Amino acid sequence: MTNEDLPSNVTAPRPIQKRKRETQASRANKSARASNTPNAYARRTPPREPRPIEDGPDADLDGDRSPPRQLKRPGAGARLAREQRQAAEAARQRREASERQALSERQRSAAELVAEHYNAVPQLGREWRKTDSQIKGLRNLNNWIKSTLIQKFARPDTIPPHGYLVLDMACGKGGDLGKWQKASPPPALYVGCDIADISIDQARGRWAETRFKKMDAEFHVQDTFGRPLMEIPIIRQVGFNPNCGPGNGVIQGGMMTGGFDVVSMMFALHYSFEREDLARGMLKNVAGALKKGGRFIGVMPNSDVISTTVKKLLQAEAPGTTPARKSVTPKAAVADGDKDEGEVDDWDPEKPNADDEDDWDPEKASDPQPAASNGEVTHEVDEDEDWDPEKPSEATPPASNTLQQAQQQPTASPQAEPSPDRAPLEWGNPLYKVLFPRSQPLTNRPLPRDGIFRPPYGWKYFYHLAEAVNAPEYVVPWEGFRALAEEYGLELMYRKGFRDVLGEVMDEGGEGVDRGLVELAERMGVLSRDRSRGVGGLMVSEEELEAAGFYHGFCFYKT
Ligand SMILES: C[S@@+](CC[C@H](N)C(=O)[O-])C[C@H]1O[C@@H](n2cnc3c(N)ncnc32)[C@H](O)[C@@H]1O
């Protein structure tokens, strides 16, 4: 029972204090206390003036205050302890500084590596692409898919009186300028950014040479994942919301006025999935630049294809070791041309304007028609339509990031347990190759046998395409990406594998086939007008289709 439990008029009995028997030791203590220990209550004389406090750990804390002593040099033991403490502190500071520097160098070098890589890629002419390229069909297909996304989704519901505005967050050498110029209608302004300065120079040059300019265009060197887009004057001028994304538990919405109508990111988003801060930085820039109702379109590698194949290959290497946990593998086997489960394709795309054909290529008349490999004259669009127009560069990127290095890992028996030393996991065909190094230092994990890439960042691989680039890429696990995008107010409208996009125009008798896109495929050399050629007129080889099957396109809507 405590005092609070008692009625107010009752006083608690005082505990009986037992007198302790005095012993010799207690007597000694008592007399010592009486002679040495100052007793504040018993003090009769005023306290002395306080002594100045000595700084530092060796300040004299001695209780003897009279008279002030001459300071002694600390003893050897104390000096040693102090020196050790100082040395340890200095070592800690040096270690922290070097860790900070290493981190910033790693971060910088990853971005610089990409820039260096793309900067080193030579610009090859249109003629080469049309005649000598062994992946002409694939180039045409990729360009057509990008144009299809632009055609389907880039036109805003309501076009503002000043026209709509487009931001391309990884414009490269300006390969999509022509596609935007030929959009129906073209945007009023196209802003192209890229981390590779030489690519930006080439994009500027290409724009300067464009004869009929139907839009304004600006180009900026910018790391659009690692730096805020607010840094670019034209983007600030158009409008940028720096508060987009999660914060204070609230997802900030898009701007009602100002901002871009469309943000595009073609074949580039996967570089941002090296690290979470880059992926978030990228999405913050996308969402911050978009107005409410604006669209985010792009194409990138399809993680469903990657997951399915990695799982299949790893389980074939070690049969009978299927993980017990029920795997949440992607339900779609896109590699086999199946339809994505996660696909949102019921959104009603806007039909292209019937005048498109007239509008399409004002330069066509003066240009000689290029001959397709099979002798057919295609009505390909102009020289701006160059997806990855690059031959592998002479410049060798740092060894830790080269495809060669990934290939140099020793081979082992396919039945052996996965180990970091083994040859990379590999698949592909004569035109393309995907290589996954077994040792994944960024995630510090082995490749997932259930095909689930967790954590979602830092899963590095190489996609090597004949005549094209092989910078290291990172898996973008689709569901993780979609969930992350939602945090930035980006809602999925559409997602489709490249094979399925093509399937839509191949199924010409099917319901809802967009004639405009079929004609576009004919003009861009994807389909022959003579449907008796190849399979249903398709001018893309099976090997090229397999390479293209690695990708999918998407469109998000800014809430
Ligand atoms: C495969 S190219 C695609 C270029 C162009 N979008 C196209 O479709 O032709 C990838 C581009 O992404 C750019 N890129 C990679 N990381 C970037 C970053 N952090 N910021 C801006 N651009 C980046 C590269 O410099 C390169 O130009």
UniProtKB/TrEMBL annotation:
<feature type="compositionally biased region" description="Basic and acidic residues">
    <location>
        <begin position="80"/>
        <end position="105"/>
    </location>
</feature>
<feature type="compositionally biased region" description="Polar residues">
    <location>
        <begin position="1"/>
        <end position="11"/>
    </location>
</feature>
<comment type="similarity">
    <text>Belongs to the class I-like SAM-binding methyltransferase superfamily. mRNA cap 0 methyltransferase family.</text>
</comment>
<feature type="site" description="mRNA cap binding">
    <location>
        <position position="179"/>
    </location>
</feature>
<keyword id="KW-0506">mRNA capping</keyword>
<keyword id="KW-0949">S-adenosyl-L-methionine</keyword>
<dbReference type="GO" id="GO:0003723">
    <property type="term" value="F:RNA binding"/>
</dbReference>
<comment type="function">
    <text>Responsible for methylating the 5'-cap structure of mRNAs.</text>
</comment>
<feature type="site" description="mRNA cap binding">
    <location>
        <position position="473"/>
    </location>
</feature>
<feature type="site" description="mRNA cap binding">
    <location>
        <position position="270"/>
    </location>
</feature>
<dbReference type="InterPro" id="IPR029063">
    <property type="entry name" value="SAM-dependent_MTases_sf"/>
</dbReference>
<feature type="compositionally biased region" description="Low complexity">
    <location>
        <begin position="25"/>
        <end position="36"/>
    </location>
</feature>
<dbReference type="InterPro" id="IPR004971">
    <property type="entry name" value="mRNA_G-N7_MeTrfase_dom"/>
</dbReference>
<dbReference type="GO" id="GO:0005634">
    <property type="term" value="C:nucleus"/>
</dbReference>
<keyword id="KW-0539">Nucleus</keyword>
<keyword id="KW-0694">RNA-binding</keyword>
<dbReference type="GO" id="GO:0004482">
    <property type="term" value="F:mRNA 5'-cap (guanine-N7-)-methyltransferase activity"/>
</dbReference>
<feature type="compositionally biased region" description="Acidic residues">
    <location>
        <begin position="338"/>
        <end position="348"/>
    </location>
</feature>
<feature type="compositionally biased region" description="Low complexity">
    <location>
        <begin position="398"/>
        <end position="418"/>
    </location>
</feature>
<feature type="site" description="mRNA cap binding">
    <location>
        <position position="551"/>
    </location>
</feature>
<keyword id="KW-0808">Transferase</keyword>
<feature type="region of interest" description="Disordered">
    <location>
        <begin position="1"/>
        <end position="105"/>
    </location>
</feature>
<feature type="site" description="mRNA cap binding">
    <location>
        <position position="173"/>
    </location>
</feature>
<keyword id="KW-0489">Methyltransferase</keyword>
<dbReference type="InterPro" id="IPR039753">
    <property type="entry name" value="RG7MT1"/>
</dbReference>
<dbReference type="Pfam" id="PF03291">
    <property type="entry name" value="mRNA_G-N7_MeTrfase"/>
</dbReference>
<feature type="site" description="mRNA cap binding">
    <location>
        <position position="206"/>
    </location>
</feature>
<feature type="domain" description="MRNA cap 0 methyltransferase">
    <location>
        <begin position="133"/>
        <end position="559"/>
    </location>
</feature>
<feature type="region of interest" description="Disordered">
    <location>
        <begin position="317"/>
        <end position="426"/>
    </location>
</feature>
<dbReference type="InterPro" id="IPR016899">
    <property type="entry name" value="mRNA_G-N7_MeTrfase_euk"/>
</dbReference>
<protein>
    <recommendedName>
        <fullName>mRNA cap guanine-N(7) methyltransferase</fullName>
        <ecNumber>2.1.1.56</ecNumber>
    </recommendedName>
</protein>
<keyword id="KW-0507">mRNA processing</keyword>
<feature type="binding site">
    <location>
        <begin position="142"/>
        <end position="143"/>
    </location>
    <ligand>
        <name>mRNA</name>
    </ligand>
</feature>
